[in-house]
């Protein structure tokens, strides 16, 4: 069955999040390795980990930890892997299956190619060191020095990796839309899916972040909305989610911070995309 989930914020412990996700009735979830209340990285806690693993083994398959934005793997000036390595340690002990990463910005590089090379060096190093976890690169929506906003970057990244089988991709619909990709009309959607196949490859897309966008097409500004509450609209997102070429891919909605009652409505919306 297709995995359907929500990005959840951690206010106390990761075990609490896993229990809450199970209560909500979602089949997967994503979380930052950051406590939303303290704004600090979550550190390993033996009891919390034991409780988390018990719940995750009983109720979940794939689980996604989202790397923080404090790491920029495409920077050539000061590669610093300390935070992402902390997150990878945490992910492995808590048995997350995937780490979702924004490729970052080519800081200090002469051109974007140099940034892509820095990213590939970082991934080659981290993949060797951390087994049993997939690295998921997500498309972003920023300007010229950002890596992975232009989908063509993923084609290049794939061709340069030592172990390309460990790297898969996440397509965020809100990011693609505000970067300037159009998939609202039926024809545009067909062409967009073709482009996804030529760049990420459909069989390498491991996750869709099905988000609507607060900002309009091409504005390169990132603010998510629940499907139907933004500029893309429910109908385009629904047909994207249910496209026969994409319908096997797990879906995660990343809503803005919501009261519990509204999270329950998001869960009900997810049920529409069950297959
Ligand atoms: Zn996303």
Automatic annotation (TrEMBL):
Disulfide bond keyword on record: no
PROSITE patterns: AP_NUCLEASE_F2_3, AP_NUCLEASE_F2_4
Xylose isomerase-like TIM barrel domain mapped to chain residues: 19-257
InterPro entries the UniProt entry points to: AP_endonuc_2 (IPR001719), AP_endonuc_F2_Zn_BS (IPR018246), Xyl_isomerase-like_sf (IPR036237), Xyl_isomerase-like_TIM-brl (IPR013022)
Keywords: DNA damage, DNA repair, Hydrolase, Metal-binding, Zinc
Keyword DNA damage (UniProt): yes
Taxonomy, superkingdom: Bacteria
SUPFAM superfamilies: Xylose isomerase-like
PANTHER family per the UniProt record, alphabetical: APURINIC-APYRIMIDINIC ENDONUCLEASE, ENDONUCLEASE IV ENDODEOXYRIBONUCLEASE IV
NCBIfam families: nfo
Name of the protein in its database record: Xylose isomerase-like TIM barrel domain-containing protein
